[in-house]
Amino acid sequence: MTMSPDGWPLAEPYKTKMIEWIRLLEPTEREAALRRAGYNPFKLLAQEVYIDLLTDSGTSAMSQEQWGALMRGDESYAGSVSFQELERSVGDVLGFPLVLPTHQGRAAEHVLFRALAHPGDIVPNNLHFDTTKAHVLTAGATPLDIVIKEGEDPEGDYPFKGNLDLERLETLLRDQGDRVPVVMATVTSNNNGGQPVSLENLRAVSEIAHRYGKPFFLDAARFAENAYLIQQREAGQASRSVGDIAREMMSYADGCTMSAKKDPMVNIGGFVALRDEDLYRRLRDFGILYEGYATYGGLAGRDLAALAQGIREAVFEPHLSYRVAQVAQLHATLREDGIPVMSPAGGHGVYIDAGRMFDHLGRDVFPGWALSVELYRERGIRCVEIGTVLAGRDPGTGEHDYPPLDLVRLAIPRRVYSQAHLQQVAEAARRILLRRHDVPGYRFTYEPPTLRHFAAEFAPLG
Question: pLDDT of 5-33, one tens digit each?
Answer without folding.
Answer: 778 888 899 999 999 999 999 999 999 99
